[in-house]
Amino acid sequence: MKKLAISAMLLSVLGLTSCDVFELDNYEEPGETIHGAVIDAATGDSLQTDQGSEGIRVRMTQLDYSDNADHNPDFYCMPDGSFRNTKVFEGMYNVRVDGPFIPIVRENEAGVPLADNTQDVKVSGSTEVIFRVMPFLRVEFVGYPTVSNGQIAAKVKVTRGVSRDEFRKLIEPMGNYDEKYPNVTDVQLFVSYSSSVGYRARDERWSSSIEYDGDSFDSLLDTPVTIRSAKGIAIPSGRHVWVRAAARINYDTPAGSGTRRWNYSKPMEVMIP
User: Fold this and answer.
1) More confident residue, 6 or 70
2) What is the pLDDT of residues 198-236, one digit of tens each?
3) Which of 91, 143, 79, 84 is nearest to 120 (CA)?
4) Where does residue 158 rank: exposed (0-12), middle (13-18), buried (19+ CB within 10 A)?
5) What pTM was estimated for this model as a whole?
6) Do strands 32-40 and 126-133 pair parallel, antiparallel, or not at all (unpaired)?
7) Residues 6 or more apart from 193 whose CB is under 8 A from it?
8) Three-state SS for 65?
9) What 3-state DSSP class applies to 247?
10) What angle do CA 110, 116, 119 make, to 5 degrees?
11) Minimal CB count within 10 Å: which of 122, 208, 212, 229?
């Protein structure tokens, strides 16, 4: 009888324990949605970007979870500058974006805030957040690319979204300013079979770049520059490919991250005759 009683007690304890474990593992998955876009404040156009860690980063920190909560896992904008995350817990969040534009969070070397254009939002159901920013550069195709012997030639115009003087006015107070920061360092032509063409979705056989030293690109600003797809391997006849141009300056965002992000043109489809 004692053995039966002990067995019954053990089974009862195990039953309670298994119920507790079940309850701990039975939390509902997050199902709220945050969506929005990063927009050029001057033109109203969505900021074209890369789809990946070289693109526009979205960072969320839940404010009503604890006093010193870590930020949620970062995610990134889609190529057209829009973003969507459908796996968010309901709550109050601080949302910031980092990309090829004047940082929306700026501090001086002592940590004193200079600007904070992050947004505190209540995420419940489907919540929209729009950020209006000042892009470093604007990049666009001039006309339609031409094709000769399987090689693409495109005219690309790069203009400043922020003048050198304005850039310095906003960035220098952060400390350790360098006159080289606003220099345009390279222009890229990314080629891919994918409409998501960019650094992360490029065909290295055909993509190409032009590098620039110092401020040598300044004389080419606002002027169409011809860039051709890589020589060597012709793009097969009869194929459709996508191209996008990109350019960047000598400044990383967030500051000190080592990631210099490109400003992009819109993608364009090209038929190879």
Assistant:
1) 70
2) 999 999 999 999 999 999 999 999 999 999 999 989 999
3) 91
4) buried
5) 0.88
6) parallel
7) 203, 239, 240, 241, 242
8) coil
9) strand
10) 145
11) 122
What is the structure's pLDDT at 16? Answer: 46
Question: Which helix (DSSP H) or strand (DSSP E) does residue 184 occupy?
Answer: strand 184-192
What does the DSSP assignment read for 2-55? HHHHHHHHHHHHHHHHHHHHHHHTTPPPP-EEEEEEEEETTT-PBPP--SSTTS
As a whole number of angstroms, the distance between CA 172 and CA 178 comes to 8
Tokens of 119: 């947004």
Reduced to 3 states (helix: H, G, I; strand: E, B; else coil), residue 219 is: helix
Q: Residue range 64-80: average pLDDT?
A: 84
Q: What is the DSSP string of 67-135?
A: TTPPPPPPEE--TTSEEEEEEE-SEEEEEEEESSBS-SEEE-TT--EEEE--EEEEE-SEEEEEEEE-B
Q: Are 265 and 244 in contact (CB under 8 A)?
A: yes
Q: Give pLDDT tens digits for 246-265.
A: 999 999 999 889 999 999 99
User: Which bin fits 89, alpha (ψ -120 to 50), beta or left (φ > 0)?
Assistant: beta
Nearest Cα neighbor of 242 from 187, 191, 188, 189 is 191
Q: Tokens standing for 212?
A: 């620039």
Q: What is the pLDDT of residues 95-119, one digit of tens each?
A: 999 999 999 999 999 999 999 999 9
**The residue to which tokens 């505190």 are assigned:** 120
With residue 244 as reference, give the H or E element that holds it. Answer: strand 240-249
Mean pLDDT of 36-65: 94
